[in-house]
Amino acid sequence: MKLLKDKIAQEGKVLSENVLKVDTFLNHQIDPELMQAIGEEFATRYKDEGITKIVTIESSGIAPSMFAGLTLGVPVVFARKRKSLTLTDNLYTSKVHSFTKNETNDISISQNFLSSDDVVLIIDDFLANGQAVLGLLDIVEQANAKTAGVGIVIEKGFQTGGGIIRERGIRVDSLANIKSLANGKVEFFEEAST
Ligand code: 5GP
To answer: Which residues pair with 119 in a beta bridge?
Structure first.
């Protein structure tokens, strides 16, 4: 997606060979117009898949998911990373090791919001080693729901996550796919992979 790749090229900061900072438009400050374009792109790609629910993870997956949900006319459910006083029982739970924070957390979704009738589009901001998406896939499986695919804003294609998930036969649509962050520069694969 050219708009997104241009934004990454202009505003992304390469923190190391493995980490890209995009807090001017995705991870801290949010660019609503860009999020809308991203959400609409996911919606267009999945419009014929019978999606009933978007599933994401707090917090940076929520913004693009909202616009995808708005366009597809379906609710957005986000997995919570921390225990909540109001989210007490009847949970689907999975363990996720965070790439950026180097800690393992339980993520949870209430059983009220996911069932065997659902066809799910999973959306997240980054795909690195795939742990966040694998945790969400685990939760969708616990609910006996169907996963139609995974929409990723920025995939780091040089890390393992994309391969692991595609090898399971799951469709992955990334709107920008990074080939390398070496030498402080962002290099993309020619086409965002699906
Ligand atoms: P994974 O679970 O695929 O290893 O990592 C995905 C999660 O880690 C994303 O939800 C995102 O929050 C975070 N993440 C992974 N790599 C990066 C990165 O290069 N930059 C930023 N800002 N977040 C990342």
So the answer is: 146
| Ligand 1, CB within 6 Å, residue ranges | 19-22, 27, 60, 99-100, 124-132, 156, 161
Asked if residues 121 and 68 have their Cβ atoms less than 8 Å apart, the reply is yes
Residue 155's DSSP bridge partners are: 127, 177
CA 150 → CA 62, 132, 138, 172, distances in Å? 14, 11, 13, 5
Region of poorest pLDDT, from 40-49, 74-83, 183-192: 183-192
**How does residue 88 score in pLDDT terms, banded at 50, 70 and 90?**
low
Q: What is the pTM of this model?
A: 0.96
Cβ neighbour number for residue 68 with a 10 Å cutoff = 27
User: Average pLDDT in the 140-166 region?
Assistant: 98
* pLDDT exceeds cutoff 70 at 194: no
Give the residue, out of 24, 96, 102, 126, with the most ligand 1 atoms within 8 A of its beta carbon, to mutate for a pocket test: 126
Judge whether residue 102 has pLDDT over 60.
Answer: yes
**Contact (CB, 8 A) for 148 and 47:** no
Alpha helices per DSSP H over 12-160: 32-45, 62-72, 131-142
